[in-house]
Predict the structure.
Amino acid sequence: MRQTLEALLAGWITHQRWFAGKGRAINDLAVEAATELPLRDLAESFHSDVAGSRGTTDHARQADTGQVTVRHIVITVSQDGHTDRYQLLLGFRPVLPQRLQHVSIGETDDGCVYDALHDADVTGLLLSWLATDADIGPLRFRHLPGAEIDTSPRSLVLGAEQSNTSLVFGDAYICKLFRKIVPGVNPELEVVTALADRGSPNIAKPYGWIEADVGGENTTLAFTQEFLRTASDGWALALTSVRDLYGSLPGTRAGDAGGDFAAESNRLGMATAHLHAELAAAFPTSTIEAPEVKRMVEGFRRRLDSAIGEVPELGPLAHVAHEAFDRLADTGRPITVQRVHGDYHLGQVMRTPAEWVVLDFEGEPGQPLRERRALDSPLRDVAGMLRSFEYAARHLLADHPEAESLLPRAEEWARRNREAFIAGYSAGGGRIEGDDAVLLRALELSKAAYEVVYESRNRPSWLPIPLAAFSARTTA
Ligand SMILES: Nc1ncnc2c1ncn2[C@@H]1O[C@H](COP(=O)(O)OP(=O)(O)O)[C@@H](O)[C@H]1O
Ligand SMILES: O=P(O)(O)O[C@H]1O[C@H](CO)[C@@H](O[C@H]2O[C@H](CO)[C@@H](O)[C@H](O)[C@H]2O)[C@H](O)[C@H]1O
């Protein structure tokens, strides 16, 4: 049965990994802006490519794309009296070819609707438009001065667990489309370009971005960087190490197992300290005094209360966090603040043969842009990574038949890698001294409160991982 586009999207969006409003009813979904993309460029690019190796299949595809319309769409989604914007790239065809059936959204009077980010014939145009700084209706495609963009690679949608959607073009570029759009320049563009200007080795080279005016502000819609083709992400590497430990003989300590990760955790700590030094040099820094520290603690308490409102199991454990927050409020010590990563975890770092490289500087996707760009303690990132070691250690225990006997191993792995990371951070010039342990503990528990909400909305079976942070067993 044919439905309106809005009704189709309301059903489809709730199943998308990147939809941030899961678990809450949609009261209204409306199309705010729709820009038809000029596919004549597509036919031209096919003609110019007949001599290439893609020639034969592209002839077939050219016929296939003859009646395609592709629209860049911004929708507004209202839930609980709150409205968010998301961006989509939708294709419309009379009939969906086999290769696109897995991304079908449904049928409207305009034809079969599908997620055109999976249509490599169409997405190739994005690179051409970046290379030429094209303006397509309200969409502005821009590349960085001096960045040469090869427009030939075809794209695949990255299959990662993501808050956004990334297209990987050959092994050259990765273009991330920010799904939830918040008016303003995305911190990722701002930070990565500033660090690239300083020659930082800990970021992936930026190439370009897409922007448009949204809500009256210049807003980043997508960001293209170098694809780190020889790198492995920190989460996958850490899990390999944990798996190795779980598979080793009873009594084996993390440091004696073949896949010990501590040396890498140590290097990651050093890279993190270097990154913080670069951020402190590229952006302003400041100090917050006791009254502001108290306000920060109030913010932690509000986040905790709201997490309890959404996940009641947290209620009986919350005193652990309140005690840590009280201690922080009582220290009365000033805190140095600067630009930070803001959502730092093992999935945001990649090990290249030379370095740890840091990705995804956009902060916690659920927070307002103003907060994500605010100066903060660099220990917020340290706390994020410490939480991530806990996640890596515990995540394989879910549904594991020997979970109980493996728990001490998980705890030992987490402790060893947390300590190695902190040692590396200090060796790299990062400052953790005096009462910083109190701040670090409060930041970790505040992050865990965020994670409780994140998991309950996105991956309910992972909820026990952040909840465990509130047990008395977790050490500072
Ligand atoms: N420059 C890159 N090179 C290679 N892989 C990347 C790159 N950027 C991101 N990735 C991969 O994509 C995943 C998700 O990227 P991320 O920026 O964290 O997206 P999101 O904001 O949607 O969570 C990363 O964990 C990593 O595996
Ligand atoms: O999508 P982002 O990478 O910006 O971050 C969000 O998703 C993360 C999960 O993909 C989430 O991180 C949590 O899970 C990780 C394991 O998958 C773990 O390493 C992190 O420590 C944990 O916080 C992140 O919180 C969320 O903002």
About this structure: Residues 403-427 form the longest helix (25 residues). Residues 158, 160, 162-164, 166, 174, 176, 204, 225-228, 231, 233, 347-348, 350, 359-360 surround adenosine-5'-diphosphate (ligand 1) (CB under 6 Å).
